[in-house]
C-alpha cells in the first residue's frame, strides 16, 4: 500500500498521509502504480464532465482542464516549462541545458510553450466533450503516466540527487514490463480510441526519448514531466481529430 500512496502523493495534490519516511525501494516500486493513479484521475475528471453535461461545451472543457491542473498541482507543467527554456537556451550544450533546467524562473519560451499546450488541451477537450467522447479522459492520464514507466525503464537518469534518482535506481524492471504490457492490453481492448492513444503515446515517447538522449544523455525529472504533458496533449488532440 505504501508505494501506491507514494505515487498518489507525488502525482496529485490529494491529501495523502504516509506511514513514515518512504524507503528508497518503496519509491522505486511506486512507479508501478503511476498508470493506476492516471486511471483514478481520469475517473475523477470523467465524473466531473458528467456532472457538467448541462453546461456549454467550452465551459465544460475549461472547468475540466482547471480541475486537471489542480489535481496535479501543475507539477508536470513546471517540468515542461523548465525543459522548454533549457532546450532553447542551452544552445545544444549538455551542461548549459541542465543548468538552465534547475533555474526556477520561467522565460518567454516557457510561457509560450505552456500557453500552446494548454490551448491545445482546451480545444481538444471542448471537441471531445461536445461529442460525448468521455473515454479520452481516462486514456490520456493513463498513457501519459505509463509513458514515464517506459522512459525510466529505457533511459539513464542524469541528475544525481534529483527527484527521479530513487525511481531510476530502485526500479523493479521486470514488474514495470508487466505493467506496461497490461496497460497496452487495456488500451487495445478499449477500441479504436485506445489503439490510437497507445500509438500516439509510444510515438511521442520515442521522439522525446531520442531528443533527451541526444541533448543530455538521458532524462531528468523535468524532462519526464515534459514527456507526460506532451503525451497527454498529443493523445487528446489525436482523439479530438478522430471525433
Quick structural gist:
It contains 12 helices and no strands. With 243 residues, it is an all-alpha fold.
Task: Compute the average pLDDT.
Answer: 94
- Describe the sheet with the most strands: none
Q: How many DSSP-defined strands?
A: 0
Summarize the amount of helix as a percent range: over 70%
How much is the radius of gyration in Å?
17 Å
* End-to-end distance: 38 Å
> Could you spell the SSE succession in H and E letters?
HHHHHHHHHHHH
Dominant shape: globular
Integer count of domains: 1
SS-based structural class? mainly alpha
Percentage of residues in strands: under 5%
| Low-pLDDT segments | none
Our count of helices gives: 12
Amino acid at each position: 500500500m505504501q508505494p501506491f500512496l507514494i505515487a498518489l502523493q507525488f502525482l496529485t495534490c490529494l491529501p495523502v498521509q504516509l506511514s513514515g519516511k518512504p524507503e528508497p525501494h518503496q519509491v522505486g516500486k511506486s512507479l508501478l502504480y503511476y498508470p493506476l493513479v492516471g486511471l483514478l484521475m481520469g475517473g475523477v475528471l470523467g465524473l466531473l464532465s458528467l456532472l457538467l453535461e448541462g453546461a456549454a461545451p467550452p465551459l465544460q472543457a475549461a472547468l475540466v482542464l482547471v480541475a486537471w491542473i489542480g489535481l496535479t498541482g501543475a507539477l508536470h507543467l513546471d517540468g515542461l516549462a523548465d525543459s522548454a527554456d533549457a532546450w532553447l537556451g542551452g544552445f545544444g550544450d549538455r551542461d548549459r541545458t541542465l543548468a538552465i533546467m534547475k533555474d526556477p524562473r520561467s522565460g518567454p519560451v516557457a510561457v509560450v510553450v505552456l500557453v500552446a499546450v494548454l490551448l491545445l488541451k482546451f480545444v481538444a477537450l471542448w471537441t471531445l466533450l461536445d461529442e460525448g467522447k468521455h473515454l479520452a479522459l481516462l486514456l490520456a492520464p493513463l498513457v501519459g503516466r505509463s509513458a514515464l514507466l517506459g522512459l525510466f525503464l529505457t533511459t539513464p537518469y542524469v541528475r544525481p540527487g534529483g527527484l527521479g534518482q530513487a525511481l531510476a535506481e530502485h526500479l523493479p524492471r521486470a514488474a514495470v514490463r508487466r505493467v506496461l504490457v497490461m496497460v497496452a492490453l487495456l488500451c487495445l481492448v478499449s477500441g479504436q480510441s485506445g489503439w490510437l492513444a497507445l500509438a500516439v503515446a509510444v510515438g511521442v515517447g520515442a521522439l522525446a526519448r531520442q531528443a533527451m538522449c541526444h541533448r543530455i544523455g538521458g532524462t531528468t525529472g523535468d524532462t519526464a514531466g515534459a514527456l507526460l504533458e506532451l503525451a497527454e496533449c498529443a493523445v487528446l488532440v489525436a482523439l479530438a481529430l478522430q471525433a
